[in-house]
Design brief:
By secondary structure, this protein is of the alpha+beta class. The protein folds into four domains: 183 residues, HUPs (Rossmann fold, 3-Layer(aba) Sandwich); 143 residues, Methionyl-trna Synthetase, domain 2, CATH 2.170.220; 169 residues, Isoleucyl-tRNA Synthetase, Domain 1, CATH 1.10.730; 136 residues, OB fold (Dihydrolipoamide Acetyltransferase, E2P). The chain contains 25 helices and 27 strands. The strands form seven sheets. Strands 18, 19, 20, 21, 22, 25, 26 and 27 form an eight-stranded mixed sheet that branches. Strands 3-2-1-14-15 form a five-stranded parallel sheet. Strands 5-4-9-10 form a four-stranded antiparallel sheet. Helix 18 runs antiparallel to helix 19. The relative contact order is 0.09.
């Protein structure tokens, strides 16, 4: 049977997880695991805490406690926070368990017996007062490369240089504060160079399907030539080296941490066996190949999710270790993410520039808040370049997308059902009794005929289904089918931002359908038409519950519960997502608000915790006094270049203060009571901004969606007709008095490109 093993890089148990960790390896793995399960795949998702190493020893010494006190504290806190976040791993284990010690020692013993480990005597710093050899993190000195006087024993945090410990200038022990002496010690090295050719072939074989950052970083290491790498250290906290002559030495954390995936799987299998659900040896079904079969023949996939700082360990070192052990699966893909920043700056615990996951749930404890964070991080996931989390973007995602699009459709459809159909899925009129069967056939034809847009479906397929569906029906069912198909393709190819966008597009199409069919009118004029429209809407609500399950698990459950027992008892699968499975007459429950709006005060509060004042609460006087009902196009929302001869000249430094980026318009809608204002949701690469622009006389909302425009991004927010605008679009005056948006000349320009 086809199996997919999924891992997230084990977080180090010496601190609380922040949002950067979550966006890097946890959320993408969970999105993928949930989607694969929905698709009927057999999945095992394992993770846990990395609990050995020098950093934990140092943290324990600083706090005056034992290393076990440290790892228990952070393991439990992080496990609880991840559970609140909705992680669906099958086990969250830890590397301090006996089973992990046993697994690591088995690997060491096996590789030693096969000749893949070399014993070497080497010089190392030694603290005579403390009577101990000093691992790299226990030594500080002057960087031999840049002169930074607080460089670590093997790496400079300022310039990034790597060097031999003994090359450090002016070394001092962090234990006693004294200058260490140099003394010989013995360590064991993994002969990584022996696997140079195997790894070159491994990377080449996967280059076409792996991310470019993974391939390039791996090839950089291979091009330099692989050399022996130490796998033991003179420490007391770690997995003991299983040799009599190696007392006082432990296995280096880089070697034992990746083996935590295997020991976690063993722990999971043992727990399942205790519950009578299998055998303890079933861990082998996920890690070891059947005799005589290749990994492809055995249909075994291993996907390792991680941040870019972990690429070399999972694309070079761990594959070599698995290959050396023999008959183990190798990573099928290593979809490494770049880094997530916070409000434009790197995460830094020392500068209080971080948002810990546990702290987030102290301020936002409800299940909807976990989903709101999952959605915001997914839409800003650093898949191909560093991205940014901002509280303003979080607010916009919740208010303008989760509440205004998804929540709005579900709520008003359900409210209409309770007001007009006793809260039940409407019975179809006699003329439309075969609509469910026709629905399934239409969905199949859209896929079979490779229809690309709803308009194509209307053009080519509507005549065939004219008896059953209106154009509005065909349009929404085509949107449902196409966006579902594209979301699946994006999940499969690890493009999670695109998968989430396609999923929200289903909700956008559903909202449009409700507006276009106007059941509040037809209920008075032709009740059969209203019943048919609300039958379709009821099915769409169920479809959205399934489509959003990987992204918004709590919301998905709430929607299914709202639909009643008939919905929750149905088989939930991706393959049936686009089918009308809710029976006519099914009783639904009174709807609840799925997402509460995030107010400006909450954003200001969270930004203040970082020590920064938020502009939302202190907008300039002009913005504050902007009329709330005036229909005049706001001149500060569309830049209109003026051709005059007496313009004030500015310096290049003045111009540098203007930040222009390309943005892609995701959503466009007219502002009520305004002839000119259009409210836009614009993706500017790092976040989505709400922008109000006075271009409604020259562009329809439909033709704006998908356009790549030029946006002034560092403008203070302004309130226009009671709604906030967070930027400007650039437009040019045409000879006839109309406006033309400034767009890139060439196609292929993505959102977020710098304009200069």
């Amino acid at each position: 049977m086809k199996r997919t093993l999924i891992t997230s890089a084990l977080p180090y148990a010496n601190g609380y997880l922040h949002l950067g960790h979550v966006a890097g390896s946890f959320l993408p793995a969970d999105l993928y695991a949930r989607f694969m399960r929905l698709s009927g795949e057999k999945v095992l998702y394992v993770c846990g805490s990395d609990e050995y190493g020098v950093a934990i020893s140092i943290a324990a010494e600083k706090e005056g406690v034992t290393p076990k006190d440290i790892i228990d504290k952070y393991h439990n806190a992080n496990s609880d926070a991840l559970s609140s976040f909705g992680m669906s791993y099958d086990i969250y284990s830890r590397t301090s368990i006996p089973r992990h010690v046993e697994t690591t020692q088995e690997f060491f013993t096996d590789l030693l017996a096969k000749g893949y480990l070399a014993e070497k005597e080497e010089a190392q710093f030694y603290d005579a007062d403390a009577n101990m050899f000093l691992p790299d993190r226990y030594v500080e000195g002057t960087c031999p490369n840049c002169g930074y006087d607080k460089a670590r024993g093997d790496q400079c945090d300022k310039c990034g240089a790597y060097y031999n410990q003994l090359d450090l200038k002016n070394p001092r022990s962090l234990v006693s504060g004294k200058t260490p002496v140099v003394k010989n010690t013995t360590h064991w090295y993994f002969k990584l160079g022996d696997f140079q050719q195997m790894l070159e072939e491994f990377i080449t074989r996967n280059a076409a399907t792996w991310k470019d950052n993974v391939v390039q970083q791996s090839r950089s290491w291979l091009n330099q030539g692989l050399s022996d790498r130490a796998i033991t250290r003179d420490l007391t906290w770690g997995v003991p080296v299983p040799l009599e002559r190696a007392k006082g030495k432990v296995i280096y954390v880089w070697f034992d941490a990746v083996l935590g995936y295997i020991s976690a799987t063993k722990e999971w299998a043992a727990q399942q066996a205790e519950k009578g659900r299998g055998k303890a040896e079933e861990w082998r079904d996920w890690w070891t190949l059947p005799a005589g079969k290749t990994q492809e023949e055995a249909e075994m996939r291993y996907i390792a999710f991680l941040g870019k700082d972990n690429i070399v360990f999972h694309a070079i070192m761990f594959p070599a270790m698995l290959y050396a052990r023999g008959n183990y699966v190798l990573p099928t893909n290593v979809p490494a993410n770049e880094f997530l920043n916070l409000e434009g700056e790197k995460f830094s615990k020392s500068r209080n520039w971080a948002i810990d996951l546990r702290d987030y749930f102290q301020d936002f404890p409800e299940p909807q808040h976990a989903d709101a964070l999952r959605y915001t991080l997914a839409m800003n996931m650093p898949e191909n370049k560093d991205s940014d989390f901002t509280w303003r973007d979080f607010q916009a995602r919740v208010n303008n997308e989760l509440a205004a699009i998804l929540g709005n459709f579900v709520n008003r459809s359900a409210q209409f059902l309770h007001k007009n159909f006793d809260g039940r899925v409407p019975h179809l009129p006699e003329a439309a009794k075969k609509l469910p069967e026709a629905w399934k056939l239409l969905v199949g034809d859209i896929v079979a005929y490779n229809v690309f847009t709803p308009d194509e479906a209307i053009e080519h397929l509507h005549p065939k289904y004219l008896h059953y569906f209106s154009e509005d029906d065909v349009r929404v069912l085509a949107s449902l089918t196409l966006h579902t198909k594209r979301a699946a393709e994006n999940y499969t190819n690890f493009r999670f931002r695109d998968a989430v966008t396609e999923t929200m597009n289903i909700a956008r199409a559903a909202n449009k359908y409700f507006n276009d069919t106007a059941p509040w009118k037809s209920i008075k004029e032709n009740r059969d038409d209203a019943a048919k429209a609300l039958y379709v809407c009821s099915q769409l609500i169920r479809s959205l519950a399934i489509a959003f399950q990987p992204i918004l698990p709590n919301t998905s459950t709430a929607i299914l519960q709202m639909l009643g027992a008939d919905a929750t008892h149905l088989t939930q699968s991706w393959q049936t997502l686009a089918h009308p499975l809710l029976p006519e007459g099914a009783q639904t429950l009174v709807p609840t608000i799925l997402f509460s709006k995030v107010e400006d005060e909450i954003v200001a509060r969270e930004i203040a915790k970082l020590g920064r004042k938020d502009d939302i609460g202190s907008m300039n006087d002009e913005a504050k006094t902007a009329p709330s009902t005036n229909d005049q196009a706001p001149t500060n929302q569309v830049i209109k270049p003026q051709a005059t001869n007496d313009q004030a000249l500015i310096s290049i430094d003045d111009f540098k203060n203007i930040q222009l980026r390309t943005g892609k318009i995701l959503v466009a809608e007219r502002v009520p009571k305004s002839e000119k204002l259009v409210k836009l949701q614009v993706d500017i690469g790092t976040e989505t901004r709400q922008i109000l622009a006075g271009i409604g006389k020259f562009y329809t909302p439909e033709e704006l969606v998908g356009k790549v425009v030029t946006v002034l991004v560092n403008l203070k927010p302004a309130k226009l007709m009671g709604q906030e605008s967070q930027g400007m679009l650039l437009a040019a005056n045409m000879p006839d008095g109309s406006l033309s948006l400034v767009t890139p000349e060439k196609s292929g320009v993505e959102a977020g490109a710098e304009v200069r």
